[in-house]
Specification:
With 152 residues, the protein is of the alpha/beta class. It contains five helices and five strands; from the N terminus they run βαβααβαβαβ.
């Protein structure tokens, strides 16, 4: 029997991520699973890490990032009434999105990753080509790819 207890849902707060969260909530409600809604902020390029001003300001930047993400998480979760019936933990990481997601799913022993086909980038297909495909290839658990409906 397939147990579904822990579902990782990477988000970039785009419409694609909203649809992935909706699908994950449906699964979590049916299986009584917990959702780990996760945002990964890309790390600063190495050249910027050399600056003492950047190093000194990183804690402020991280605190502001976590504050803003908490607001975005709250708005995203509030769109779905069934979210009240599901346990949801939010997480914010910095680094390579696919690496952080893969590391996190291993750490919590996730049963599934539910991810949108695209992310919020200026290049159509960039998120899927970059992050989603790497997660599909290297994930230790099942991965569900959620398309944004053509017609709403």
């Amino acid at each position: 029997m397939f147990n579904l207890d822990r579902i990782v849902v990477p988000t970039d707060f785009s419409d694609y991520s909203d649809h992935a969260l909706k699908r994950a909530l449906d699964l979590a409600e049916a299986c009584e699973a917990k959702i780990y809604l996760t945002y990964v902020a890309p790390d600063a390029p190495d050249i910027f890490k050399l600056s003492k001003y950047v190093v000194e300001g990183q804690e402020k930047i991280k605190a502001e990032l976590e504050k803003r993400c908490a607001e975005y998480f709250q708005k995203q979760i509030a769109m779905f009434p069934q979210a009240e019936k599901v346990e949801i933990e939010t997480n914010v990481f910095t680094g390579s999105p696919y690496k952080e997601i893969l590391d996190f799913q291993k750490k919590i022993k996730a049963d599934m990753v539910v991810i949108g086909t695209h992310g919020e980038t200026p290049f159509e297909g960039f998120f899927f080509g970059s992050t989603s495909q790497k997660i599909i290839r290297h994930s230790i658990c099942s991965v569900m790819i959620v398309r944004k409906p053509m017609y709403s």
